[in-house]
Design a protein that fits this description.
0% strand, transmembrane helix, transmembrane, membrane, coiled coil, DUF1640 domain-containing protein
Length: 113
């Protein structure tokens, strides 16, 4: 992993040349070093390579999702076919029941006449 080099001696020297006192220059340098350290640690935390998805990962997930969709589609087609068959059985059954009732009524009427 890459390391950030921060020359604190050069930083203090430049601050001193700019008019800062020695304690001020050292305090600013220490704060700058801490800020860099925090920023680097945060960047390491935010940009972990193990958390990134590659194209290969995405292709695998897409393929997996497509297979799940196809499975749901085939289950749905099966359920629709079963429902259609059951509906046909009910319609035929109700039709036969109507024919039986109508026939019974006709025979009843015919036997009284």
């Amino acid at each position: 992993m890459a390391t950030i080099t921060f020359d604190t001696h050069e930083f203090v020297k430049r601050l001193r040349e700019s008019g800062f006192s020695e304690p001020q220059a050292e305090a600013i340098t220490d704060l700058q070093r801490q800020a860099i350290s925090v920023a680097v640690d945060q960047a390491k935390q935010d940009w972990r390579p193990d958390g990134l998805a590659t194209n290969k990962d995405m292709d695998a997930r897409i393929k997996e999702t497509e297979l799940k969709i196809e499975l749901v589609r085939s289950d749905l087609k099966r359920d629709i076919a079963e429902t259609k068959a059951e509906l046909i059985r009910w319609v035929v059954g109700v039709g036969l029941l109507q024919i039986t009732i109508i026939t019974a009524l006709i025979l009843k009427i015919a036997s009284h006449a």
